[in-house]
Amino acid sequence: MLIVVGAGAAGMAAAITAARRGIEVVILEQNDRPGKKILASGNGRCNIANRHPDPTRFHSAHPELVKKALQGYDAQRVLAFLGSLGIETEEEEEGKLFPMGRQAASVVKLLTRECQRLGVKLVTGCQVTGIRREGKEFLLESSRGSYRCHQLLLTAGSPAAPQLGGSNAGMLFAQSLGHRLIPLRPALVALESDARWPRRAAGVKLPARIGLLASGALVTEREGDLLFTDYGVSGLAVLDLSREASLRLAQSEPCELSIDLMPRRSKERLEKLLGDRIDPRRDLPLDLWLEGVLHRKLVPLILEISSIRAEKEKQLNRKTIRQLVYAIKHLRLPIEKTRDFRYAEVAAGGIDLAEIDPERMESRKIPGLFFAGEILDVDGDRGGFNFHWAWSSGIRAGNAVNR
User: Fold this and answer.
1) Cβ atoms within 10 A of the Cβ of 60, count?
2) Strand order from edge to edge, sheet including 255-260
3) Disulfide-capable partner of 284 in 128, 178, 289, 298 (CB 3.0 to 4.6 Å)?
4) Is the entire prediction scored with pTM above 0.90?
């Protein structure tokens, strides 16, 4: 018998794959229903995978092992598995794949239905409280009694989104069995700043290019939506670079964002645009003149940063235009920390991949102990990559379990 701890995407994919091979499977799930994180994904629309799961879109202390684990598990293989459940997909921008009905709830229903069809026993509201090895068996203590098995799969996730049941309990059980844990950090998460000015621009959302500077050096750069908030910044571009920011902040490096508020215009084009807008006959106040190209909440910030003393548009000249352009395209924001795990989509870190066979997802230390999904030190970029890792590692584990 195989016991799976955790009824998320990886756990159910593994259980279905193993059960299709004739293996008796029991899933223990702490929540009152399976797939709670699936239900919340993509605001309920469920970005279920990505058409281009390049290994560079996944992150780990051992990227070479991630690459091995993904070999043979491309988008077609994952889509074939989903299709076997009755889930058809459609592609959106950047290769994002969604169920055609855009309903995460339907994905969970179809996964659960296949588990039922195959005779997989799903025990919900079951909090595992202890795991130990007894000879060749695993003994699990839980709020629903004791369980024994010869093969155990841990897919209990990470501490990201604790409101959906996320925790590090599975990782702690793995540690107690002798596995190493790579330190955990929030990823795909908003960033916090002690600077007060983002509060004045709270609610402003716009396309931007954002560079992350650590110890004064540019580390990475992303382009996409930027949202100013009461605590700092969020938005897709921020989420995309948050993993690197989280790593640098954990190493106590001073971090700062360099924000280009108009990434679609070069410095020269923006200087020309602003210069051409000056109309002495109109004689607009400078703040109102700037509102013609910039959100009104950002105007006083740019005027303060650029230190321009002009009060009317007709007082502008080439030098002051350049000052404005520099402020717009090089807005600086110090970052003190990421938001905590409650606001993180995933966690960076987890069980060390060096101790896992990437072809079987089995422990190199303890025969019969398997891992899949977010419990491992693998996290993907935004856009369906974390789901791809869950499906592929779960299917791989389900295929490796012995009859």
Assistant:
1) 24
2) 331-335, 255-260, 205-214, 217-228, 232-234, 191-192, 337-338
3) 289
4) yes
